[in-house]
Amino acid sequence: MSLLSLTNLSFGYHENHLVFENISFEVTPGEVFCIIGPNGCGKSTLIDSILGINHPKSGTIEISGKNSKKLKPREFAQRIAYVPQSHTTTFPYTVLDVVVMGQTFATKLFASPGEPQRDAARASLAMVGLKGFENRLYTELSGGELQLVLIARALAQESDILVMDEPTAHLDFRHELMVMEIIALLVKEKGLSIIMATHYLNQAFYLENAGVNTRVALMNQGGFDTVGTPTEVLTKERLQDVFKIITTLGTTEEDGTTRKYIIPLRNQH
């Protein structure tokens, strides 16, 4: 069963220039779909099209078998949650208040969130390792903590699909690993489906190494170059063609498990 289906989707900001065209793919329950590609290839533009921010020139987007254009905002929020790559911390809300905002679609007009919404927010914070942060001020958190709060807010929506645009773009190694561990947990134990745009090639291998059902779409100028498992897609030849870099693929053994990774060596000249 397909939770999300794109068919021949095309989009451009200007009449005579398309950022991407004829993109088609499906996302099924309990999988991660990684969109990987160089800067400017259209990853974020594609994410914004899925979210309804951009209006495609042609093609269709179906969510749980229904045309996304026909979904009311409440229905859309029940199916898709979003984690941006960054967020401006303007007002000193508490962490709990920020996460409760993920439940606002479930409240009636002019109504305030109740205890069920707060309980869902607390559970989401515990899931991302932030139990005890409820009364901390959002404006006083580190970058890594902020990103975990945004993930908790998206989880509070209790949607089937989580869309993440460069979720670790501004994080150090420790917090990047924490986010990847949470993604693996959400897919394997909660059955969520995740669409993730990323620059970091090894994140796809991390998920595959962790036993997560993972597919990669290697995006180049104008569309998808190829789609498949990380092992099938992230080859030295394809990375040289798309990213113009020379790489080597390595493996390491840990606890009886072979783990794959990519080492960038140099730019192609």
TrEMBL record:
Residues in coiled coil: none
Domain ABC transporter, residue spans: 4-246
Keyword list, A-Z: ATP-binding, Nucleotide-binding, Transport
Top-level taxon of origin: Bacteria
A Pfam entry, by short name: ABC_tran
Entry-linked CDD domains: ABC_Iron-Siderophores_B12_Hemin (cd03214)
GO MF annotation terms: ATP binding; ATP hydrolysis activity
Record-linked PANTHER family: IRON COMPOUNDS ABC TRANSPORTER, ATP-BINDING PROTEIN, METAL TRANSPORT SYSTEM ATP-BINDING PROTEIN TM_0124-RELATED
Protein name: ABC transporter domain-containing protein
Lineage per the UniProt record: Bacteria, Bacillati, Bacillota, Clostridia, Eubacteriales
